[in-house]
């Protein structure tokens, strides 16, 4: 059992509720990893072991899920995690120029965290906003689309002041059709 990380009685009650929604032992892994990440800020090896023990699953299964998704942080991250999509559509629209520009502005490389603990950068796979490329996501929440270096400057300025940029909603075609 991990000595550093533990779930509270309330967490365990919540985990029981999550487990009750699923017919088997493996399926609750993702929501329980989310719960753990909300609580601890990351799901490092020890947190993954705690999740495995709590769900009575092999650690390798939890590790496989946690490491498949960049949205699960496998180590302590900065306050703002900047995920720059570098999959095909974004790459074709200059994602690496944007990524390298952000790296230059923050003085770190993708996979690293600034010394003050404020920013982490990740290069990630497609985030489903391909039509709005190049794009980034901030801390598993806000999407910023159609990036330019000037727009990145505005985003970073806001984050440095602890202001979260507005989420840029992606209108789906069916919504456009419904309105017209
Ligand atoms: S390729 Fe970047 S969001 Fe899909």
Structure description:
The chain has helices spanning 9-20, 29-40, 45-55, 59-68, 88-92, 95-106, 149-160, 173-179; strands at residues 80-85, 119-124, 136-138, 142-144. It is an alpha+beta fold and 180 residues long. It folds into two domains: 9-68, Arc Repressor Mutant, subunit A; 80-160, Glutaredoxin, CATH 3.40.30.10. Helix 2 (29-40) packs across helix 3 and helix 3 crosses helix 4 (59-68). The structure holds FE2/S2 (inorganic) cluster (FES). FE2/S2 (inorganic) cluster (FES) binds next to helix 5.
Brief overview:
This protein is of the alpha+beta class and 180 residues long. It contains eight helices and four strands, in the order ααααβααβββαα. The protein has helices at 9-20, 29-40, 45-55, 59-68, 88-92, 95-106, 149-160, 173-179; strands at residues 80-85, 119-124, 136-138, 142-144.
Q: CATH homologous superfamily name of the largest domain?
A: Glutaredoxin
The description of the largest β-sheet is:
4 strands, mixed
- Rg is 18 Å
Q: Give the strand tally.
A: 4
Question: Which class of secondary structure composition applies to the elements?
Answer: alpha+beta
Average pLDDT score: 94
How much strand content do the residues show?
5-15%
CATH architecture of the largest domain: 3-Layer(aba) Sandwich
Low-confidence stretches: none
User: In total, how many domains does the architecture comprise?
Assistant: 2
Alpha-carbon distance between the two ends? 58 Å
DSSP helix fraction: 40-55%
Ligand set: FE2/S2 (inorganic) cluster
Quick one: overall form?
globular
């Amino acid at each position: 059992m991990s000595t550093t990380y533990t779930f509270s009685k309330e967490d365990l009650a919540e985990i029981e509720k999550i487990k009750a929604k699923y017919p088997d032992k493996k399926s609750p892994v993702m929501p329980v990893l989310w719960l753990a990440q909300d609580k601890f800020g990351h799901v490092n090896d020890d947190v993954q072991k705690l999740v495995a023990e709590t769900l009575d699953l092999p650690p390798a299964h939890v590790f496989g899920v946690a490491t498949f998704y960049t949205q699960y942080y496998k180590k302590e991250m900065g306050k703002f995690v900047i995920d720059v999509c570098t999959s095909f559509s974004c790459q074709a629209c200059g994602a690496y120029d944007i990524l390298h520009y952000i790296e230059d502005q923050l003085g770190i490389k993708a996979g690293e965290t600034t010394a003050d603990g404020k920013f982490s950068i990740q290069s990630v796979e497609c985030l489903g906003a391909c039509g709005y490329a190049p794009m980034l996501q901030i801390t598993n929440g806000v999407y910023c689309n159609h990036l330019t270096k000037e727009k990145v400057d505005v985003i970073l300025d806001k984050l440095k002041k602890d202001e979260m940029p507005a989420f840029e909603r992606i209108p789906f075609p069916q919504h456009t059709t419904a309105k017209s």
